[in-house]
Amino acid sequence: MWKTILRRLMIMVPEVIILSVLVFLLAKAMPGDPFTGSINPKADPAQIKHLMEINGLNDPWYQQYWNWVVHLFHGNLGNSYQYQEPVTRLIEGRAGNTMWLAFFTMVLTYAFALPLGVYAGRHEGKLPDTIIRFYTYVTFCIPVFVILVLGIWIFGYVLGWFPTTGSVSSDAQTWAQTVGSRFYHILLPSLLGALFGTVNIVQYLRSEVIDAKHSDYVRTARSKGVPSKDIYRHHIFRNSLLPIAAFAGYSITGLLNGSIFTETVFSYPGMGLLFVNSISYRDYTVITALVLIYGILNLVGTLLSDIILSIVDPRVRIE
Amino acid sequence: MAENFEKHSDISAADLARLNQEAQAEATPSTAKIIWNEFKADKPAMAALVIIVGFIAFVMIGALFINTPKMMETNIMDYFDKPFTADFWLGADSGGRSVAKQLIVGSRNSIGIAIGLTVISSTVGICWGLISGYFGGYIDWGMQRVYDFTMMLPMLMMIIVLVTIIPHYNAVSLTLIFSLFYWEGTSRLIRSRTLAETQKDYVAASKASGTSNWKIIFQGIMPNISSLIIIDTTLSFAENIGVETGLSYLGFGLPTQTPSLGTMIANANDPANITLYWWTWLPAALEIIILCLSISYVGQVLRRAADASQRQGAAD
């Protein structure tokens, strides 16, 4: 068990190093520099050159990379050129928003998917199953951003039920109002994301339940007189729950990718929107930091899932 | 061989012909035939197939008759013309450009990129999975580490960064950038099936009789997993439509002067457009949904055709 985890961690180290070099080089290769145009129009080229020199942007790339890594280990990701603020503080403010959004989306996804999957498996081939399978078919391939745009149009603008921009209303004064307003802003994007993100879980759970229905332990439970409802709730569901829980780690990748679309559509100030804005301003320090953070989060998610799976299925460990 | 058979067998030519015919009647029909039967049995699937093929043919041919640079010229007199008029069936956008024409050219661009992306990424993914699964050992280990690494990359962010780096990108370079990242799912799927397939007797027999590895992979294993390949390619085509349109929606896809379904939906980013001038973006959004649903439905039918126990059209 620990050996598996340790080995996974060992593989992670070179991956993170390669990613950091790659990200750093890509950011350097982006055209333009952060100073031209961002300071006042009267600034002369000599001054820009001086600024580049001070910020070490004229050094060879490996030296710049090394400086960056040394700063990284001191918890210093540099200054954002656009916002004139340390990147760590900038991201700190946005990360919370993105995390809450992703967290709620995940909770709602599981809240929808678990009952649907069990119900579809239980009534295999009957009307509810057909309806649920139709629902998974519809939600399977429609690009999320189209759904988000349609959603904000119908529920945000036409019906006016939900706010269409920001993460918290400016009228919110007290603590309770702030929390309520935040929740209200997160509700529509996470509902839409969850409704259209259940496919994998529902399909997996459905086939698990169908398999389990004919297994020996269920027959034993039936023959000793356990009510059908309890068999599904306690016996089958509990057995299928861990592999389903393992999906949570993998789904982090999808949620993070999705955050870029969700936050753009809803003008929600999280890391995804920050990334899109930073790209337009060539804000290298912010871009590198965000790509690195997303990459590491992906890795941690996969690691979590693999650990859960190796607990569930010992065959994975030997491999 | 045939001569030998004539000499030593006591079956007459007529009998042989009859036996051949019987064997053919009883033999499993070819994959193409099974799929065709399945479509004949399922009318909605047939409708979906006709919609897809007809629509793609329509936009490909229709786009040839539209002068794109002229269409993209702004014409302030037609600013936000209402839809359903003689000049503008679907109205005009903020630059007085016909939405209907943009829709046709945009569909051509978006579908073309999706097809290119599907062809490239599926080919890479299939080869990657086959080679990795067949050879195993160090080759598999190395290829899996590359796979793990690309899986860890934040895909969307990397694509956006790459798009901004390349100075004069067009549809082709855009497709190539996407292809760098979208082979992964296919490769994983093909690899796991190849691993199972490699254990089978026919592979061992081929190896023992000295068939070259490449021949076994591409003439032995690949035809045997062809149904999986067909299904996966169809479904990834449906998903790939969302890739370019999504990036163009964010503003990092096709350049602004090149219409795409994504840039048209981006019209909805303006709070005034989204409600007042709904015709500038809604048709593109609906088109993507209908297209994806149709392709995905065809994929479902193919999946059913591959699984003998679920076929509807195999009775005859």
Automatic annotation (TrEMBL), chain A:
It is a multi-pass membrane protein. InterPro entries: BPD_transp_1_N (IPR045621), MetI-like (IPR000515), MetI-like_sf (IPR035906). Pfam families: BPD_transp_1, BPD_transp_1_N. It is found in: Cell membrane. GO terms for biological process: transmembrane transport. SUPFAM superfamilies: MetI-like. Keywords: Cell membrane, Membrane, Transmembrane, Transmembrane helix, Transport. GO terms for cellular component: plasma membrane. The chain crosses the membrane at residues 99-122, 134-162, 182-205, 241-266, 286-312. Residues 95-305 form the ABC transmembrane type-1 domain. Belongs to the binding-protein-dependent transport system permease family. PANTHER family: DIPEPTIDE TRANSPORT SYSTEM PERMEASE PROTEIN DPPB-RELATED. This is Peptide ABC transporter permease.
TrEMBL record, chain B:
It is a multi-pass membrane protein. One of its GO terms (biological process) is transmembrane transport. The chain crosses the membrane at residues 45-66, 111-135, 155-183, 216-238, 278-302. PROSITE patterns: ABC_TM1. The keyword Zinc does not apply. Keywords: Cell membrane, Membrane, Transmembrane, Transmembrane helix, Transport. This is Peptide ABC transporter permease. It comes from Levilactobacillus koreensis.
